[in-house]
Specification:
five-stranded antiparallel sheet; globular; about 40% helix; 4 helices; about 110 residues
């Protein structure tokens, strides 16, 4: 679980640092919903994000990825922990096969 938490913190920090006026993933989601920023994008350092419904998927150039949902209580990062570990190497296998759940190309 520590590897997921570290990846999530790193991804979140990278996205927030590069999107002007975003102080949280929740801000990123709300900004995209208001069309203040694109729903999908690649940031200066190569980090990618994709806002979907009530959440945001993020991936870095090292292939780490996280998907965060937002509800009335705020971000629900930790709900993904059990799912992340249950999948094991699923994300790595999906990247190697060229498939990706969010329709974005795998990182190279």
């Amino acid at each position: 679980m520590r590897s997921f938490e570290a990846a999530l913190r790193s991804l979140r920090d990278r996205v927030i640092a590069q999107i002007v006026d975003a102080d949280s993933v929740e801000d990123v989601v709300h900004m995209a919903q208001r069309r203040a920023i694109p729903r999908d994008g690649t940031l200066e350092d190569g980090t990618r994000y994709s806002v979907h419904g009530i959440g945001c998927w993020m991936a870095d150039t090292r292939g780490r990825e996280a998907d965060v949902d937002i509800d009335e209580k705020g971000p629900r990062d930790l709900r993904r922990l059990a799912h992340f570990h249950a999948l094991g190497n699923c994300f790595r296998r999906r990247r190697q096969s060229g498939r990706h759940s969010r329709g974005m190309p795998p990182s190279r």
